[in-house]
Amino acid sequence: MSAPKKVVLAYSGGLDTSIILKWLQTEYGCEVVTFTADLGQGEELEPAREKAVMLGIRPENIYIEDLREEFVRDFVFPMFRANALYEGQYLLGTSIARPLISKRLVEIAQETGADAVAHGATGKGNDQVRFELAAYALNPDIKVIAPWREWDLTSRTRLIDFAEKNQIPIAKDKRGEAPFSVDANLLHTSSEGKVLEDPAEAAPDYVYQRTTAPEDAPDAAEFIEIGFERGDAVSIDGETLSPASILTRLNELGGKHGIGRLDFVENRFVGMKSRGIYETPGGTVLLEAHRGMEQITLDSGAGHLKDSLMPRYAELIYNGFWFSPEREMLQAAIDHSQQHVTGTVRLKLYKGAATCVGRRSDHSLYSEAHVTFEEDAGAYDQKDAAGFIQLNALRLKLLAARERRLKR
Q1: Is 203 annotated as belonging to a binding site?
Q2: Which of 39, 169, 188, 241 could be a cystine partner for 245, CB 3.0 to 4.6 Å?
Q3: Active-site annotation holder among 81, 98, 104, 275
Q4: What is the pTM of this model?
């Protein structure tokens, strides 16, 4: 790959990406544009601007953008229409953020005339795959630079030495090895590494940042109502809110009640297993609510087919194929299934659990007349079940008869 002339760097303002910024300048002698996305990670982003200026980046080449609404509206909500869970448990908080960051990296590269983008993901993880597959899907000619796969700064000591030689500020707690690494956005926090690497050892309490321990959560349950339109949450307790505002509020409620903790050993796309601690309070509440809404509005055939597609859909997101045709095909089917998923769900939040306790909808398929144990006024003829059972039993009878015949 020829040396890039101008690179757009996904820049957090932290030590690692600051080192990458300086490394790009020294290794390639190229111009660097920094891009910092506010996805609801809860950190002040202006220090990233100040550090970029200090490292020689011109103000017009510093991009700091609030993408919270776009993140929830165009990425999180479509994923939640599918009830997506990777390996049955993980709500894909990190995975779903990467395509949006990549999208903006590629767009900014086009806007600024840059010929490359760069990221700070390591060569052992999933994020390198997610960033790069998304970038190539959006611009097949873009160059992608992954310093962790190229440089010789292979230890924390070497990184610190490089920072000191290049006058990059180092926070005091960064001089030793951090106890674990954290990725955060409006959907979740993810903690991995160091004190969490032994899956046999319980995670220390200090790892959890977004949720109260369930045993310390309020002793009184809290009830809330979430309104849905066509599969997306639109209100909480009757108040219409924007997508990002809904998730922010559900994070507050879920976190207070200790909801959404997950200690998970997952299979990374690159082949190894890794252990992570995830906190997804608002997402866990939202998943329970959406499931409750679908229970009365989604036809059984459509619902069961949708559930069978979900693991494949979740795997595509986890592996970085958000911008693939197969994900878009599945999304079209999922979105079609949501046209009647409209109504209100009542939830109980208590000691680490979000439980659906009521649902109502003008689009409901639930018929009390058909399921009642009382008189049903002719809504359902129970004698019809006999023929239904006989037809479904026919092949089982034939199989049993064959087994009996062969044993004689």
Answers
A1: no
A2: 241
A3: 98
A4: 0.94
